[in-house]
## 1
Amino acid sequence: MANADTRDRESQIPTNLRLLVILEEVAKRGVAVKPSDLIESLGLAKPTIHRLLQTAETEGFLQRDLDGRSYGPGPRLRQLSVNTVSSEHLRTARLAILRGIADEIGETCNLAIPDREGMIYLDRVETKWPLRIQLPIGTQVPFHCTASGKMYLSTLRENTLDGFMSARKLNPNTKKTLTEPETLRAEVINVARKGYSTDNEEFMPGMAAVAVPVLDKNNRLVATLSVHAPTQRHNLESLMQFVKLLQVGANKISGLLVS
């Protein structure tokens, strides 16, 4: 009877859509997914699931997680998501929001998205000041010493954060970079409690930054909205007065994702 039920459910998904449905399910869950989870949720047969997962992995749309059994988004699926959110009409609306914030603060505003090795700048509006810090669109910055990166780390599950802390050395970009795992963990826990994160010359000497999360309809972080400035104009305490403004902007960008 169970096999018959599986065949009935499988027949409801057209053959040419099954791989897309699997990719959709992995992306929707936001965590690495085991084949057994997909079998249960989609009703596809075990051989079908394993064959399609193997195809998706071979083609770079999915990749194995650290446990060797689960699957998460691969480089092609991540690039697909970047291209999707970079579509012209969405980007025009986002840039209008960023420009309004940048004009009010008078400093550079950025939208960054998480990748496997760091945060990638997706959009930015530059300050009009001649003294500015150049971090072009497409720049990848570390998780552990940037406001956007620490904001992302604060949203990870405990075991995923443990894996990050133990997998690599926390290299010092400046003398203020947090390089001790327990110190960084305490900072990340504090970020989760406050709802915003900071960079007090930890990534680059003479630069301070503040970041807030951009959430999807399931309250998952999809990007960060941040402002950074040379400390000659704004120290960290000065930038923190703009947290509320950034949060309003982040909520507007979140609205674009579900409209």
## 2
Amino acid sequence: MGLPIPSFSARKKHYIIKNLTPHAKILATAKALPKYSRTTEEILPYVEQWLEGKEERFREKALRIFKYAEVDKRYSIMEVGEVFTKTSFEEKNDYFIREMTLLAEAALQKALDKAALLPKDIDILITTSCTGIMIPSVDAYLINRLRMRQDVMRLPVTEMGCAGGTSALIYAQHLLAANPGKRAAIIALESPTSTFQHEDVSMTNVVSAAIFGDGVACTLMGPAPDQVKPVIVDSGMYHFYDALRMMGFDLKNSGLQMVLDPSVPEQIREHFPQIIPPFVERNNLRLEDIQHFIFHPGGKKIVQMVEEILRSFGKHIDETKKVLRKYGNMSSATVLYVLEAYLEKDIKAGEKGLMLSFGPGFSAQRLLLEWR
């Protein structure tokens, strides 16, 4: 015999109770940038030197990709000459461990300062990265360096690529819903320049080098009853079937070699009707009801495609384009840079935002936000 179906009044009561449950808010986001930076113009001579001796038409195409990638500047944990120097996987990964630990600590401390919190106020520590290997993961280093609580819950998230930042927020949302009153820190740390393949002159490696940069960001979530902050009111993942080779890395003796299918923008366009409208509609909303679009800038073509779709609804992704120009694509950290820009705006209670990232799998990760 099946379970009894609740009456309308019971369902209504459940709905009311669910929506009166205290939500964790996004309290603050802070970024930490590596000490080295170069404009695209300053990088071009290194690209020319790297491609010296290659067929002229290929060299010209590669340089055009750099020039028109709509990335004006990017940061790196290494000087540009070191990036374009052939080194071992071990050497690049050692850079990653040392520099990313320092930057993760800086981002976490800046976020704590913004929220007027202390390291011991954090109950859940989620870190996400895909561009280097650390065992123990960086969260263990942070617990020691900042003397965080010895019972803090650790969740290192790896291999989610560009979707890692949004995915980590989804995990934090679920953990905080199960632990009301707790606080979570989400740290995304990425160094795509550490994955540059000196011997790989494929167009995939060229595109990767043209759009990616290094960066770290930290987002804090927790209770803030007296402040208007964004609340995650819904979240979801959407997985493409038979698309395992659209994006990711192959592990080679020389390090992590980028996998990036040129069909990614078109694949996203085809799936967009299944990714966004049903997600918004299940919350009794239309796309027109969303004021803020917090989109991960994967690259120029993906940004242009999403912008074209949203323009028909009167929406824009100006902050996304600014982040791409100023920093490049920093994999999982990038969407948190866009989020930080929105947290610095004067947004009124009741306004809504949609957060979206794409990553290996292939998958889309979505968050519906409301300022409360």
